Amino acid sequence: MKKYLVEITETSQRQVTVTAETRDEAEQKVKQKYRDEEIVLDERDYIDTDFHVIKERSIDKER
After folding, report:
1. Cα separation of 10 and 49, whole Å?
2. Which residues are CB-contacts of 46 (< 8 A; sequence separation ≥ 6)?
3. Calpha distance 13→24 (Å, rounded)
4. Diameter over CA atoms, the chain
5. H helices within the chain, ranges in order?
6. pLDDT tens digits along 5-16
């Protein structure tokens, strides 16, 4: 018998329109809105889930 450490990664995505002078400023504005929780991704933004085994180890049998 073995134990497995399995990593679960969910991907969410949303497109946001923002007015800015440059691409960098636009990205910074959206990052700040995200940090300030003005933009909150939810189940409508769900794209995919991935499962990946990252570690395994044997379990010693009890005596």
Report:
1. 4
2. 10, 11, 12
3. 19
4. 70
5. 23-35
6. 999 999 999 999
